[in-house]
Amino acid sequence: MESDLITLGTSLKLAFFTTMILTLLGTPIAWWLARSQSLFAGLCIPLLALPLVLPPTVIGFYLLLAFSPNHLFGATWLDWFGSSLAFSFEGLLLGSIIYSLPFFMQPMIIAFRELPEDLFKAAASLGANAIDRFTTLVLPLSKHGFLIACTLTFAHTLGEFGIVLMIGGNLEGETRVLSIALFDYVETLNYERAHLLAAGLVGFSLITLTLVQWATHRGYRASSLSTR
Amino acid sequence: MRALTLLLLASLTASTVYSSHVQAKKEQATIAVAANFKLTLEGLILDFQADAPNFSFQLVSGSTGMLFAQIRNGAPYDLFFAADAERPEQLERDGVARAGTVATYAVGQIAIWVPNRTQPWQDFFREHRGSLAIANPALAPYGLAAMHLLETGLFDNEPKLIQGTNVHQAFQFVDTGNAQAAITSLAQLIQAGATQSDFYLPALNDYPQIIQKRVLLSENTAAEALLIYLGSARAQRLIESAGYKTASSLEQPS
């Protein structure tokens, strides 16, 4: 039971940091992608959606090769930080960020595209600078987008399995996450503990999706009211 | 020309009829096999089929635990080669397998694999401070054996244990350069063509025997014929050359 709590902690930590980093890095990129008409931006959008259609094993495989000190990325990382990314929490975090990228980016790009352009022009003509416009207009108007993007990212990271299995190494408190512990319980016929984790994940995911559904619904109602 | 075409057609038809006739007589079996023995079993089946072309086999491989769960839930396998002794015995006790058909077919050996080793083994065991990849001891008998071997104090410094789901993943962690050393199976190293000087074979009594048992799950002619072949001296030699001990080779150590 105690080891399950440690595993739960690792999973929550992973999901939290993945969501946080994607929010910080993904938001400006999503903003740019939503507005830009350039060919480069047009190429970036499908690239960012790639993890959605690729099996996690493809990403896991490439990450395993990239992390290896035999290759440039892994060797450089080892040089700078003195430890390898494979079998470490940081490595999992990097994998999760890549894997959950579309789950954050797609809702954010859609949310940003729906913002009325005229409003920003009006605000600018009234003397609001870029930061003012972002904090007083963009953030409140796209909060539903943020809510959806963050909950999806968080929940998706909690359910991640394939990548972790390939680059994790199953270290307690470091890379053993819920889905891996569940896999181990099923394989060792410990169905009781497996049920506990599985039912927990089902319950959590259901609640999350219900929240997202509720938020989306409210978001649409709010926006349809405002256009009236 | 026309006569030739006719002759060709006739012979084609004849051969189709003949082969479909043979096909109908073909005896088939579906075999569930633990991942570590899959390639070895494939080789054995090819050798068997050379003398008995009427038998055909379909292999399903995976972890012993997964295959066991599938069999318990009604998977249509005729024969089960497990990586341990417990699962086949459990199936026999539960009445899922045919009573009296559990037997040892191979005894696994573990090996320590260190590619690009620069020191003699003694120095390596004394000085190694890096990672060591093993199979998950909760899932894989080879991982459990590795843990027992480590408890004998083989390494002076406790290595950082990286767990793969099975010996193949432990091997792959080292093969991709992400870990420096692995405890894997001798069979895996032989299959991968590892250089002999890169691996170390611990004494058999330094870890609990990895007894791999098989059990019949149905009445199937092909499966039974294969088991008779596996008992032959020729098949036993093939199993031994693949990196396993057999029950007979353990009784009379060479």
Summarize the structure.
By secondary structure, chain A is mainly alpha-helical. In chain A, 82% of the residues lie in helices and 0% in strands.
Could you walk me through the main structural features you see in this protein, from its secondary elements to its overall organization?
The complex is a heterodimer of chains A (228) and B (254). Chain A is an all-alpha fold and 228 residues long. Chain A has one domain (2-227): MetI-like fold (Orthogonal Bundle), CATH 1.10.3720.10. Chain A has helices spanning 2-35, 39-53, 56-67, 72-81, 89-113, 117-125, 130-141, 143-158, 162-167, 178-187, 191-227. Chain B is an alpha/beta fold. Chain B has 2 domains: 26-108 and 209-247, 3-Layer(aba) Sandwich (D-Maltodextrin-Binding Protein, domain 2), CATH 3.40.190.10; 110-200, D-Maltodextrin-Binding Protein, domain 2 (3-Layer(aba) Sandwich). Chain B is built from 11 helices and 10 strands. Chain B has helices at residues 2-25, 38-51, 64-72, 86-93, 121-127, 141-151, 167-175, 186-192, 221-230, 233-241, 247-251; strands spanning 27-34, 55-62, 79-81, 103-108, 110-113, 131-135, 160-164, 181-185, 199-200, 210-216. Residues 16-23 of chain B have low confidence and may be disordered. The chains are: A mainly alpha (228), B alpha/beta (254). Chains A and B meet through helix 3 and helix 10 of A and helix 3 and strand 7 of B.
